[in-house]
């Protein structure tokens, strides 16, 4: 064995005592001496096993309401002394400090206490206690425990550290197999686990203190780390921080890629704008097809007709269950990802015939209200754009007024504009995207791109509506739109030259509404 160490002295002080008895009895049978505090000390004594109180070792009682009990040189000296260091050994003997070979310590339930106080419905143990408050959260910031764990993990060369009840059985099995000894690789593995636990614990505390409103983000503190095949391109590495299992059940397909995740995020944000049965097809975060209809099959057919070329290899999302008939139609198209709230049995069987096709069943989960992006030598943060304007907020500024269907189409187009890269123009008709101009450097280019695409797929622009993500600084877009057959225009307004665009609309006999809200998406 590599550097075997026999456990002679153990310091045990834990909050959770589940499954601890068996390990203590095993260590006792191996002749281990126990040091302990408070409730754990009583727990060991109640087993009929002798235990030395830490206060008898240090000569100091537990003070300050239990805040200080293990913070003493006789405790940390016993853990941190290097067994092969002559000076350390001399000082240990001089001050009569026992060498502690095993530290079993867990941490106060900080996160669980936060959940009990702030999110009682999500607390995993005893639930809410109306008497708990912020002072109780602060008291659950462990000082002695985390220091003991770090000390033992640092000195893994000579000391075993157990920081979770989940590792009791692992240690028990090792000691059985090795006759009470551990080897260096085993102690190092326990140390790695211990530092993972303390790192997560410190991060949770930091997030609690770092938020103006801890209510809004704390529930996302338990971040998992998933390595991705690569980043945006094969020469870039990628990692996802988060738990996708909270958002989706993956029913079929390969692992999600970086680009899949970016598109899925965009798809979820877009579909959440719509209440009626709606199907959307996205490429590179922009909708190339989207329609609202009476059924999800009709919505799929209309969405695909928007741009069947771009739909190839896209990310698909629906806000209703995928039934068998819809699945049969979708199955004719090559696509990367399909997201829906549910699938009927036959639909799932049909769609699962291709093993790499990713099928996600979406779960109900609250998403964070903030967005972050790294740039330059820092990070920028903003509130998500969660606003969308109702038809009541649309101010008619022209002589021609929209009818009921045109108002619906303007609202529909405005929702798409909000989720399309700027500069953008969206053309819509009868609850369906006709075409969009995406990410152009001028609004005229965006409009002309949209018109060309609409004509390429044989859409009749007569009676369609147009939405813009920002105001028109010149009347040229209004003139081009009217000449193409577009009958109604939506824009935020706010330009010093708004009146020129309004006058152009009146001259061309088309209508215009303003919303007062800009939806840039960079």
How would you portray this structure in words?
The strands form six sheets. The chain has a six-stranded mixed β-sheet, with helices on both faces. The chain has a six-stranded mixed β-sheet with strand order 18-23-22-21-19-20, sandwiched between helices. Strand 22, helix 19 and strand 23 form a beta-alpha-beta unit. It is elongated and about 100 Å long. The protein has 522 residues and is of the alpha/beta class. 36% of the residues are buried.
Please provide a brief summary of the model:
Helices cover 38% and strands 19% of the residues.
Name some characteristics of this structure:
23 strands, elongated, 19% strand, 6-stranded mixed sheet, 522 residues, alpha/beta
The overall strand count is 23
How are the strands of the largest sheet arranged?
10-15-14-13-11-12
Gap between N and C termini, in Å?
A: 59 Å
Computed CA radius of gyration, to the nearest angstrom = 32 Å
What class do helices, strands and sheet pairing give? Answer: alpha/beta
Quaternary organisation of the protein chains: single chain
| Gross geometry | elongated
**How many separate helices?**
19
Mean pLDDT, all residues: 89
Helix content: 25-40%
Detail the poorly predicted runs.
122-128, 213-222
Hey, roughly how much beta strand do the residues contain?
A: 15-25%
Largest sheet: 6 strands, mixed
Would you spell out the secondary-structure blueprint of this structure?
Layout: E1 5-6, E2 9-13, H1 20-29, E3 33-36, H2 38-46, E4 52-53, H3 54-58, H4 73-80, H5 86-94, E5 102-105, H6 110-118, H7 134-139, H8 144-154, E6 160-162, H9 168-178, E7 181-182, H10 184-210, H11 214-217, E8 225-227, E9 239-241, E10 248-252, H12 258-271, E11 278-283, E12 286-292, H13 296-306, E13 314-318, H14 324-330, E14 335-340, H15 345-351, E15 358-362, E16 370-375, E17 378-383, E18 395-396, H16 404-418, E19 425-428, E20 433-437, H17 443-456, E21 465-468, H18 476-484, E22 488-491, H19 498-508, E23 511-514
Parallel strand pairs: 2-3, 2-5, 3-4, 5-6, 13-14, 14-15, 21-22, 22-23
Antiparallel strand pairs: 1-7, 8-9, 10-15, 11-12, 11-13, 16-17, 18-23, 19-20, 19-21
Helix pairs in contact: 8-10, 13-14, 14-15, 17-18, 18-19
């Amino acid at each position: 064995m590599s550097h075997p160490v026999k456990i002679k002295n153990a310091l045990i002080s834990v909050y959770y005592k589940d499954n601890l008895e068996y390990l203590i009895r095993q260590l006792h049978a191996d002749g281990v001496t126990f040091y302990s505090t408070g409730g754990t000390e009583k727990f060991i004594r109640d087993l009929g096993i002798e235990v030395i109180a830490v206060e008898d070792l240090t000569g100091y009682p537990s003070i300050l309401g239990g805040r200080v009990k293990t913070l003493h040189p006789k405790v940390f000296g016993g853990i941190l002394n290097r067994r092969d260091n002559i000076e350390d050994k001399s000082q240990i003997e001089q001050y009569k400090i026992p060498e502690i070979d095993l530290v079993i310590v867990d941490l106060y339930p900080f996160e669980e206490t936060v959940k009990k106080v702030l999110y009682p419905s999500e607390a995993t143990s005893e639930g809410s206690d109306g008497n708990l408050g912020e002072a109780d959260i602060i008291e659950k910031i462990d000082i002695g425990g985390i220091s003991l764990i770090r000390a033992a993990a640092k000195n893994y060369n000579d000391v075993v550290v157990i920081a979770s009840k989940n590792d009791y059985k692992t240690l028990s099995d090792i000691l059985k197999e090795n006759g009470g000894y551990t080897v260096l690789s085993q102690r190092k593995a326990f140390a790695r686990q211990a530092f993972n636990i303390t790192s997560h614990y410190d991060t949770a505390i930091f997030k609690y203190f770092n938020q103006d409103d801890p209510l809004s983000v704390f529930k996302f503190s338990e971040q998992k780390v998933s390595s991705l095949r690569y980043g945006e391109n094969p020469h870039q590495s990628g990692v996802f921080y988060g738990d996708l299992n909270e958002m989706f059940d993956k029913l079929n397909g390969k692992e999600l890629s970086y680009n899949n995740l970016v598109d899925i995020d965009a798809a979820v944000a877009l579909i959440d704008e719509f209440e009626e049965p709606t199907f959307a097809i996205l490429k590179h975060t922009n909708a190339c097809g989207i329609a609202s209809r009476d059924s999800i099959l009709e919505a799929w057919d209309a969405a695909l007709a928007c741009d069947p070329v771009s739909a190839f290899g896209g990310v698909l999302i629906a806000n209703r269950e995928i039934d068998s008939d819809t699945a049969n139609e979708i199955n004719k198209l090559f696509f990367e990802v399909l997201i829906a709230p549910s699938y009927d049995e036959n639909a799932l069987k049909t769609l699962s015939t291709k093993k790499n096709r990713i099928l996600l069943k979406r779960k109900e989960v609250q998403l964070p209200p903030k967005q972050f992006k790294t740039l330059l030598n820092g990070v920028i943060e903003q509130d998500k754009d969660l606003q969308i304007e109702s038809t009541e907020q649309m101010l008619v500024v022209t002589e021609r007024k929209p009818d009921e269907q045109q108002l619906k189409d303007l609202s529909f187009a405005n929702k798409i504009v909000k989720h399309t890269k700027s500069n953008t123009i969206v053309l819509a008709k009868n609850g369906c995207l006709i075409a969009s101009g995406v990410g152009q450097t001028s609004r005229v280019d965006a409009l002309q791109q949209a018109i060309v695409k609409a004509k390429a797929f044989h859409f009749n622009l007569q009676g369609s509506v147009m939405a813009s993500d920002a105001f028109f600084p010149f009347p040229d877009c209004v003139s081009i739109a009217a000449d193409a057959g577009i009958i109604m225009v939506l824009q935020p307004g706010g330009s010093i030259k708004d009146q020129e665009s309004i006058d152009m609309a009146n001259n061309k006999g088309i209508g215009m509404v303003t919303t007062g809200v800009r939806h840039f998406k960079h």
